[in-house]
Design goal:
By secondary structure, the protein is mostly helical. It has four helices and no strands. It has one domain. The radius of gyration is 14 Å and the shape is globular.
Length: 79
């Protein structure tokens, strides 16, 4: 069965393309990964979620926008 196109993911990718933004991990990202791992949690952001972080860090999205877009993305993805 073919995967359904995620409209929110397409919007996020297009916004990143228009602003020439891509995700670059930081030392804080590595630290957060290890803290969550040591706490027994598994948090793995996919490329779309990482792109949201990059757009926020570049000043193109507010925190509220990121939360709204991520919720919509996850809802469409069925996660």
């Amino acid at each position: 069965m073919p995967r359904r196109q995620n409209a929110t993911a397409a919007v996020i990718r297009e916004m990143a393309r228009q602003h020439h933004v891509h995700y670059v991990g930081t030392s804080s990202d590595v630290f957060a990964h290890h803290v969550t791992r040591l706490a027994g949690d598994t948090v793995i952001l996919d490329d779309v979620e990482q792109t949201l972080l990059a757009l926020q860090r570049a000043g193109h999205l507010s925190r509220r926008d990121v939360v709204r877009l991520q919720a919509s993305y996850l809802r469409e993805a069925g996660l």
